[in-house]
Amino acid sequence: MAVISEPAAAGRRSPFDWLQTILPKLVLAPSFAVTIVCVYGFILFTLYLSMTNSTMMPRLDSWVGLLQYEKLWSDPKWTISLVNLAIYGVLYIGISTAIGLLLAILLDQRIRIEGALRTIYLYPMAISFIVTGTAWKWILNPGLGLDKLMHDLGWTSFTFDWLINGDMAIYTVVIAGVWQSSGFVMAMFLAGLRGVDSDILKAAAIDGATLPQTYRRIIIPLMRPVFLSAFVVSAHLAIKSFDLVMALTAGGPGTSTWMPALYMYSLTFTRNQMGLGAASAVIMLATISAIIVPYLYSELRGGRRD
């Protein structure tokens, strides 16, 4: 009778072991295939459309090369969209980061009602940008909101007409965006603050450092990775902002609050210039990639080093 050695028996894999190995791959395969087709496939399709003369429907045989990009950069409305994005992005990212950091520092003091305050601050992020834009449209409407309230209270000289003022309307988008995103940034900073080694804080206290000095010279410099993460997330939200602008101002008055995403939507779906709209979408994707790819590279490189 043949005797099977232990190494040979260990080398054999039962059908159950093979099923355990292949089953996760089978489960993930449909999602992986859908991601490849619906994300990367359509990215390539959009890139191809941006080099065609497509109008209301895709025209794959109307190759024009980089002509759509030349039209894009010579269009004054695209320039206006980029200027608005620059104003909105700088203020939105800067103010959200400052308010989020301040709120995180206040909550880090272990106050008694921290749980309730954290929920209140995070609540706006649970609301869609459409709801946020609609709510702030009512609040800032001179005939319905803050302006009318002050007049009813007797302050008849009060005027806040930014929503209908072409020079100031973009700042109403900033107000609504900051209100919604500051709590999310606060949560990121609070998680970072709670991860600081307590021994560092004890050493600073022994050396006689006050609480403001401890935060300014020790804790906040340690928050550099959180600052970078907050910047990447906020920049991504700013670049692709569409629903907030659409609900709040619809791009008006005129084109004073147009953003690249609104420009892309308008050219593609209301003006039947699909090729030009695809070109603007490719520029937006390239901008987001220029922000996210270096961040992901630095994170992966740091993880390998660790």
TrEMBL record:
GO CC, alphabetical: plasma membrane
Cellular compartments annotated: Cell membrane
Pfam families xrefs: BPD_transp_1 (PF00528)
Xref: InterPro entries: ABC_transporter_permease, MetI-like, MetI-like_sf
GO biological process, one term: transmembrane transport
Predominant place of localization: membrane
Top-level taxon of the source organism: Bacteria
CDD domains for the chain: TM_PBP2
Keyword Repressor: no
Transmembrane segments: 26-49, 85-107, 119-139, 168-193, 226-254, 274-297
Chain ranges of the ABC transmembrane type-1 domain: 82-297
Membrane topology of the entry: Multi-pass membrane protein
This protein's name: Sugar ABC transporter permease
Natural source organism: Inquilinus limosus
